[in-house]
Structures are given as structure tokens and as C-alpha cells.
Structures
1.
Amino acid sequence: MRYLALVFALACGGGKPAVESPRPPPATPVAVSSQCASAYADYEQRWRTARSADLVEVGFDAASVDEVLEIEVALLPNKSDLAKLRGQYTAIAVFLPDSPWPLALDAADAAIEQCGEEAPHP
């Protein structure tokens, strides 16, 4: 019986205290290139223009629009999300290439190329 209790205690972490491995130092912030910062700023400005028009159209007030946009522009979208959005806005892009959504999607592509997918705001 004592043998079973000893085996159980050792199996559950009894015996020698576990040695903790040293924790890695906190990650240092990655330097953001000026091209990334510029591309991100263009994306943010164009995305805000396109998205705010849509949100106002469906009845959002100014504070709600700002709240949604702060969340949405905090990270760049990924390429698969952009592909879906381009599919939704194909007709607009064909007939009105200088309208807000095609410009916003182009700016998002450029920012992804400079900063990476789902990159945080620089």
C-alpha cells in the first residue's frame, strides 16, 4: 500500500521540486519602416472614408462609427478577407474605380505588402 502511495505521489509531482526554466525577456518592439507607417496611414484614412459612409447609411451615429473604425483599423486585414471584400465590390471597382471602397482595398493591399497581414497599427 505504501508503495502505491509513493508511486502516486511521484506521479503527481511529489518528490523533487520542478526546476523552472528561465523565462525569455519581453519582446522588444520591432522598428516600423517609414514605408509601413505611410502605407498604414493611407490604408487607415481610405478605410475610414469608405466604411464610415456605409455605417452612416445604415443608421450608425458618429460615436458608434468612430468606435467601429477604431476597432477595424487597429489591425490590417488579411489577404483572404480582402479577396472576399473585392468579390463583394467587383461591380463598383469596374464601373467606379475611384470610389472609396476600391481605393480602400488597394490601400489595404499596399499596407499588407509593407507591414504584413494583420499587422498592428504602427
2.
Amino acid sequence: MKLLSWNVNGIRAAAKKGFIDWIQKGKADVVGLQETKAHPGQLEPALRDVPGYESHWSSAEKKGYSGVTLYTRVKPLAVAPGFGIPRFDGEGRTIVAEFPQFTLFNVYFPNGKMSPERLKYKMDFYEAILDHWEKLRKKGKRIVFCGDVNTAHKEIDLARPKENSKISGFLPEERAWLDKVVSKGYVDVFRHFYPDKKDAYSWWDQLSRARERNVGWRIDYFFVSEDLLPKVKKAWISSEVPGSDHCPVGIEIEA
């Protein structure tokens, strides 16, 4: 199975920049999008019904904000918007799909830069969703989670770590949560295959034209629970794909 994840920074904007051609040419089995910024009823039929795919949506109560979408060529056993906590589900940040091989979480994690209150919300979200994953694993579920985590884990994961050490997205407490995720037995698939690869980023600031200079951050991930790792064949970052301030990331799992 080929899985892709992409923060499109507005699906309607991405549609004007070739999104439908991209998804059709990519032939992925599952595509998770974040920050779609739309309810299905606001979209053209071509976006709701991409040929060969069924689509599932989790939209924020606030229009034009957040939102995640899942396109899949492999019919899930079940799909649910959110993970059962209204405080978080109301922002349309999570969609969960059950497949025979694993449970997939497509997640747009909160950004903590706006205020101390939003940073707290982000950290609360982090802890709540990890606790949810752990409960599922105790029931024998294998977990895949993908999306915009809004945190670079290690210094290698951003171009200017020292300058950003006090900025949300690279704060010690945010990075410590990713350490905790790894300690619980989840594997950052890209780093598993490329432990020392530098200059591999998935987000660039648009205002400073940082993408042209590759002054970026790797904040978009695929993690798998370690019991699924033997099935994972490869991982990649498609930094050549335009259309957003993020680029797609992907993995391939043996069916």
C-alpha cells in the first residue's frame, strides 16, 4: 500500500494548482490531507469525488479553518471523524480509518505559536491523542499516524535550530513529546530509513521565499507502531511538488 500525506493549506487553493492531477498521477492507495479549510458542501464535485477514490471529511466547526480529509482507493473497514474528545474534535483535526493491517490516524496537530493558550491546547492535544493510541495498542491494534505535527523533532530536522530554539515548533517541551512517542514504540519512518539525511524538509516559510533556498523544517511525518515496521518498505519526501507551503510525504507498506 502506498500512503501519502500532505498539508495542502487550503484544498480549494490546491485545486487551482494541480491537486487533482497530482492525486491521479500518484496512484496512492490512501491520501491524507491536512488544513483543507473547507466543508464538503463548499467544494466542487471534482474534489469530493476524485475518480477511483472515496473521500472522508472531518471539518472544523469554524468555516475556513483546519480540517482533514482522507481519499482512499482501498475501502476502509470503518472511518470516524475525531477520536472522541469534543474539545479537540470540534476543530476538525483528526480522521481515523480502520484497515485490516492497521488503524490510520490522519492528523493536523495544533500550532502553538499564536499564544500561550494555544501552546497549552497543543500540548494537551499531544497527550490526549498519544493516550488514545496507547489504549488502542493494548487492544492489539497496529497504529499508523501521519500529518502535520507542527514540531521539528531534532536539530537535523530544521535548517536553523539555534535561531528557533525558543519558537513554538521547536520548543523543548514539544520535542520532548516526540521523544516520548518514540520511547513508547512508535517509529519515525523517514528517519528509520535516512537517519543522517540533512536538508530534508517538508515546510518552508512563504513570506521569506525560504523554499527557494531550502531553509525549511521537517514537521510532516509518518510514524508507525514498531510491530508494523517490518512491513514498511520505504519512505520519502516529495519536496519537488508545489502547491502549498508544505510538500507531500509518503511511505509504502507491504499489503
